Amino acid sequence: MMVHNHEVVIIGAGLAGTRAALEAAKVADVAVLSKIFPSRSHSGAAQGGMAAALGNLDDDNWEYHMFDTVKGSDYLGDQDAAEILAKEAPEVIYEMEHMGAPFSRTPEGKIAQRKFGGHTLNFGEKPALRACYSADYTGHILLHTLFEQCIKQGVRFYSEYQVVHLIVKDDICRGVVAWDIRNGGLQVFRAKAVMFASGGYGRAYRITTNAHANTGDGLDLALRAGLPLEDMEFVQFHPTGIYRNGILMTEGARGEGAYLLNKDGERFMKRYAPTLMELAPRDLTARAIQTEINEGRGCQTPEQKAQGIPGDFVDLDLSHVSEAKLRAVLPQIFDLARNFAGVNVAKEPTPIQPTAHYSMGGLPVNVDGQFIRDAKNTPVRGLYAAGECACVSVHGANRLGCNSTQDATLNGRRTGRTIARDVPHLSWEDVPAEDVKAAEKDLDWYYQANGSENVADLRTRLQDTMMVNCGIYRNEKDLKTQLGIIKELQGRGKKIGVKDKSKCFNSEVMEAMELGHLLNFSEVIVIGAIERQESRGAHARTDFPTRDDAKWLKHTLAYQEPDGRIRLDYKPVTITRFQPKERKY
Amino acid sequence: MNLTFKIYRFNPESGQPPHYQDFTVDVKKGETVLDVLGEIKAHQDGTLVYRRSCRSGICGSCAMQINGLNKLACETQALELQTATVVVDPLPGFKPIRDLAVDLEPFYEKLRSILPYLINPDPPETDKERYQSPEDFAKIEISISCILCASCTSSCPSFWADKSYAGPAALVKAFRYSYDTRDAGLRERLDMLDNKHGLWRCHTIMNCNDACPKKIFPTEGISFLKRKVVENKY
Amino acid sequence: MEKGIGSGGAFAWFFQRISGAFLLIALLAHFWVLHYASNGEVTFQIVAQRLATPLWKTIDLGFLVFAIIHGFNGFIMVIHDYIHSHNLRLALVSLVWVVGILIGIMGMITIIGFKVPVGGVI
Amino acid sequence: MHYKWKTGMWAFVFHRASGLALSLYLLLHINVVSSLYNPAKFDNTMGFLGSPLFRILEIGLLAAVLYHSLNGIRIFLIDFTNSTRKHSQIFWLLAVVGLIIFVAGAYPMLHHAGIL
């Protein structure tokens, strides 16, 4: 088997991965592995902006940003991490700008900033102009700028390599085994430092903004290696996904003045967040929309109207904003609304529904990006993570809009620097033969799978039921039903059939592998959600409708025991400046 | 509505030459060509290979030739094509790897060759941005939306004829940086592009403008660069 | 980026456009004189009358040179598009140059060397 | 390969084809004109070329020259006046202009040839 030796191996080439690579490559030999081409990473789909208290257009400062982040997290976010995010964010923005990122500008030539949900001035007084943006493809320009910087610096990319096994022995990470998708061979990547930047897990849901590639592979690889996952039950639903396919309509639309309307044409947000209205944080807005739909005030399609079925979407209305302004600041949503909803946003409202968007939970790391394996914050030697796959935890129970691009870039940079600092002190470790054998055995299993179950059908069933039973609103009964369904699907997953036996670009085996990951970590989401008997941020339990700080102001850690059982543990939340209080907007 | 999808099939391991295979799919309003490919892969033939990721037109994975034109499968409504048979081919001009997936390494090679990054020897102030007027930003705005899907380069007859030609995508990127007011690398890039495989292989055939899913009009940027080279030299 | 034969291509591109514009004007004149001002007949007498004046000599000379370079430059562009073997390309481009120069000389001799025959133009 | 041909592609291919044809014609033309040193020979050749057959071929020459000139104008506009987005409209506008000139030019030519 081919063995590569790179001092640093980074898995994933989105904002976090490429930003870390730029730092680490200054002192070490870095390889970036990605299952798709780097420029295809899902960071590029971020539309609205990147938060930083530059104060280019108002009197912003980092303390407001930190407060909003902590309050937005429903006080589950670790405040040391939130402080770092708010303080370092302006520096990270300037650095991106200096690298060449083309931001939209104010009339005097500074970086332009817009309003975003939950971002306020003076601790909640009024909306802040904090999101730095480039029209409505901010993630795209950030991703491409970093990718191009990697080209400049000569970072080595292994594109279309799927990591299939994480090699951890004696609490030391020694590298990974990856599958070369184009040629079908397994290759060992021996490394002193391995970093996950493998993105989120939105594909566990049917209606999602996430790319097909976002199957949370990195999370499951860690779980299988005996390492914990943190706060997996917190899945953010973005309020405005295009009806039926969940494609993102940026929060920037509401930042530029869009209204949310129910079937009576009422701006219903006034009943949920009288101060911030449509600019309330995402968890609150998504719940408001879902409540309108559940209580029969959703808008109806003509067919639904004719048949007297209650509607299951609401309208996002931009028709009162001038078309010239929309073309200037939100050009992309014209195409999205036209191609995927058949709507001209300048003239008519777009039908939208909440859509699974962001994974607050993930691989537990400390503020330096080192992977931690337990409630006592013990780092795993040579293992790091940043970006959506990681849980620092900045976002706690609910992330604020445009904090994710900042989190990925900023913590990618921090983690890259930590790796650069650590690499000289890390040594080359042997790769145990049993790890390689295990990876080979796994891959062979997929090639020989000749059962009768259909991978796509199992995946669809998982996504549909997760949506219904573990979506915006949850309760114990539905969650337990869902756990049963996942167990059943895991059983059926052992009897799948894979027709394609080719070595070359076998995407059928790839999808089967991804299904395995989805089924595995979905169980963790559901178990974490069953246990957490409170409502906090994105986790809204109808049977426990209030936040319970006495019992639940703590992070969930989930481990997979060798027998496959999920074991939970808990970890305290770091609280420094802001004591938890009631969350109102 | 039942549509026939005539899809290009090729697997180097099968020993068979490339051929077309027909699939009949019941297509509903609102379904894209990518949705249809997904349906075929899920329920008719799992061995069908194509690239996809974001399915919302921003990642560029699913560029392919649909009814003779390069498009993103995820943005193409199948019924709006208004043909009973939809012909799906891989991007022309690149080596097919398998079915609809082609070898894009040459494409990235071209991109790397044109110095696709900001060149500015003057170190900026660390605690503030470089200023740029909204008008100057507007000049490059359309070109920054390029998603590197390769539709343009793959549609270019000059590229079909000369595989060393930089191609519209790389040239758009060169334009994007050269016309950024913060960049000082114009001369360096123009030296690179004034070349038998550079700008001058563009004969304004215009296929790239039709193929670009982001409506960037690469020819416009290429014309700018051509004039700039001439201005600088004569 | 790999360099092709010779450097650049900027001059060829620019010249093609400038010479094209000139040729368009010259061509209009040429056609006018040939087919409309002269009733459509091309005889020695008519051509000789025209060629005898220094102004027409200059115009025709410019026309000749620009037409040849424009045409053969076009040929060379096509060769650069489709021929990628270095040696073959060198050979073909050289051939085009040689033919171009020969035919150019031939044309120049005709125009410059033209003298009104003894007896003058009637 | 069966890429769909759009206006720009047709315009390009015809431009190439007419350009190559005109270059070859130029070779021939210079060759013919070089017989000017001998008035008798020149008139002889011209007489031969004045036959109806060559008159008709000459109409082909007119078409090639017209096409190459007008599309040349289009290329010039694209390259120097940022007309990329309007290239197709320019093409059809010039096509109409070209057709009118062609008819206006071909009629007297055929007339002289005694065909009309």
Give me the oligomer status: heterotetramer
Binned strand content of chain B: 5-15%
Shape of chain A: globular
Overall radius of gyration of chain A: 23 Å
Please explain how this structure is put together:
The complex is a heterotetramer of chains A (585), B (234), C (122) and D (116). Helix content of chain A is 35%, strand content 21%. With 585 residues, chain A is an alpha/beta fold. Chain A has a 6-stranded mixed sheet, with helices on one face. A 4-stranded mixed sheet of chain A has the order 1-10-9-8. A 4-stranded antiparallel sheet of chain A has the order 13-16-15-14. In chain A, a hairpin with a 5-residue loop joins strand 23 and strand 24. The radius of gyration of chain A is 23 Å and the shape is globular. A 5-stranded mixed sheet of chain B has the order 2-1-5-3-4. In chain B, strands 6-7 form a two-stranded antiparallel sheet. The longest helix of chain B is centred in the last third of the chain and has 16 residues. Chain C has 122 residues and is an all-alpha fold. Chain C is built from 4 helices and no strands. In chain C, helix 1 crosses helix 3 and helix 3 packs antiparallel against helix 4. Chain D has one domain: 3 helical TM bundles of succinate and fumarate reductases (Up-down Bundle), CATH 1.20.1300. Chain D has 4 helices and no strands. Chain D starts with 6 loop residues before the first helix and ends with a helix. The interface between A and B is large, with 67 and 62 residues.
In a few lines, what is going on in this structure?
With 585 residues, chain A is of the alpha/beta class. Chain A is 35% helix and 21% strand. In chain A, helix 1 (15-24) links the parallel strand 2 and strand 3.
Write the layout of secondary structure elements.
The complex is a heterotetramer of chains A (about 575), B (about 230), C (about 120) and D (about 120).
Chain A: E1 2-5, E2 8-11, H1 15-24, E3 30-34, E4 50-51, H2 62-72, H3 79-99, E5 113-121, E6 126-132, H4 138-153, E7 156-159, E8 161-169, E9 172-180, E10 186-190, E11 193-196, H5 217-224, E12 229-230, E13 235-242, H6 252-255, E14 259-261, H7 282-294, H8 302-307, E15 314-317, H9 323-329, H10 331-341, E16 350-359, E17 363-364, E18 370-372, E19 379-385, E20 390-391, H11 403-422, H12 433-448, H13 455-469, E21 473-474, H14 476-493, H15 507-531, E22 540-541, H16 549-552, E23 554-560, E24 566-572
Parallel strand pairs in A: 1-10, 2-3, 2-11, 3-7, 11-19, 17-20, 21-22
Antiparallel strand pairs in A: 4-6, 5-6, 8-9, 9-10, 12-23, 13-16, 14-15, 15-16, 18-19, 23-24
Helix pairs in contact in A: 1-4, 1-11, 2-3, 3-11, 5-15, 13-14, 13-15, 14-15
Chain C: H1 10-36, H2 44-51, H3 54-82, H4 86-112
Helix pairs in contact in C: 1-3, 3-4
Chain D: H1 7-33, H2 39-49, H3 52-81, H4 87-112
